[in-house]
Amino acid sequence: MNAPRPPSRTLQIRKIAGSLGAEISGVDLSRDVSDDVLAEIRAALLDNLVICFRDQVITPDQQLAFARRWGEIHLHPFMEGMPDHPEILAIVKRPTDKKNFGGSWHTDQMFSPAPAMGTILYAKEVPSAGGDTLFTNQYLAYETLSDEMKKIAGQLRTVCVGDNFRAANGLSRKERYARQMSEMKVKDPGNVQTTSIHPLVRTHPETGRKVLYVGGHVQHFDGMTEEESDPLLNFFKAHSIKPEFTCRIRWETNSLVFWDNRCTQHFAINDYPAETRIMHRITVCGDVPF
Ligand code: OGA
Ligand code: MN
Questions:
Q1: For residues 82 and 73, is the Cβ–Cβ distance under 8 A?
Q2: Contact 127, 275 (CB under 8 A)
Q3: CATH number, position 118
Q4: Which domain holds residue 94?
Q5: 74, 76, 106, 220: the active-site residue
Q6: How far is CA 122 from the centre of its chain?
Q7: Cα of 39 from ligand 1 centre, angstroms
Q8: Residue 122 domain flag
Q9: Cβ(290)–Cβ(199) below 8 Å
């Protein structure tokens, strides 16, 4: 574990589960955030992995200004941004849509050579109940492995893809989304690299702690067939989402959640068939995992 950080001076931090997640109050993200408060938010993110700010009334430009304080914006290679804000992806599910975006365990843009450091998701319209998001702590997933399994995991590398997933029964992203998510527009990634190989155990560049870096984009281990990979890969995937490693965010309109993709996975629950859910999503660029 890291040395405990000094208490926040401006923010109030309330943990929402034993393993990760906190609600943060005491800051208005529609205004310029000072460097000191930004440092407190960074400490809260590193300590809690997922932080939720309630009742934030912000415009797309204000969400972007906040996101830019953390780094460059990571543009999704497959998803069309909002017409007037190409850096923001509108995640929309309507009552006629059968599937939702992010409805399986994953970490964002893991198929990129330098996956997103974090995601800043803002709730514009939420169902009366349902549409929560689950998160899981991948430091704990690593730390709870036996010493022998840690050694094996430390030697493996994962092959991650952004399209034509094994689980998609031969359908491309474009075909699946056109059938099931009417308002999510898929584009051709052009020259952008969307298959990448990463270490299964990565070191968080800011905390120095090791993480079990696994998620739905992983297809098999590098240098192994799918058949050879599956028993261990399925074990790592199942282990990494044990209930005791998770928390659950219940959204309200104007909630803003910032998660650290380097040490978490998430899962958007599809349990609101008759209602609309609209979120504005920005991802911040990250480093090459090591
Ligand atoms: C995402 C995602 C989760 C949600 O934005 O990357 O997976 O709850 N969304 O909408
Ligand atoms: Mn996601």
A1: no
A2: yes
A3: 3.60.130.10
A4: 12-284
A5: 106
A6: 13
A7: 25
A8: yes
A9: yes
Per-residue pLDDT of the chain (290 residues; tens, 9 = 90+): 566 777 888 999 999 999 999 999 999 999 999 999 999 999 999 999 999 999 999 999 999 999 999 999 999 999 999 999 999 999 999 999 999 999 999 999 999 999 999 999 999 999 999 999 999 999 999 999 999 999 999 999 999 999 888 888 888 989 888 888 888 899 999 999 999 999 999 999 999 999 999 999 999 999 999 999 999 999 999 999 999 999 999 999 999 999 999 999 999 999 999 999 999 999 999 999 99
Q: How far is the CA of 148 from the centre of ligand 2 (A)?
A: 31
Q: 3-state DSSP helix/strand/coil percent for the chain, to nearest 5?
A: 25, 25, 50
121 lines ligand 1 (CB under 6 A): yes
Q: What's the gap between Cα 152 and its chain centre? A: 26
**Torsion 194-160-248-5 (CA) sign:** negative
What spacing in Å lies between the alpha carbon of 10 and ligand 2's midpoint? Answer: 30
Report the alpha-carbon distance of residue 56 to residue 123 in Å, rounded: 9
The reply to whether 281 belongs to the active site is yes
* Structural domain contains residue 233: yes
Protein residue with its CA nearest to atom 2 in ligand 1? 102
Token code pair at residue 245: 């490693």
- To the query of whether residue 54 is one of the catalytic residues in this protein, the response is no
Residue 5 lies in a domain: no
Nearest protein Cα to ligand 1, atom 10: 268
Closest ligand relative to 181 C-alpha: 1
Q: How many separate domains does the chain show? A: 1
210: in domain: yes
Active site residue 202: no
The one catalytic residue in 47, 97, 108, 163 is 108
pTM listed for this prediction: 0.96
Residues 121, 123: Cα–Cα separation, whole Å: 7
Tell me, using a 6 A CB cutoff, whether residue 102 lines ligand 1. yes
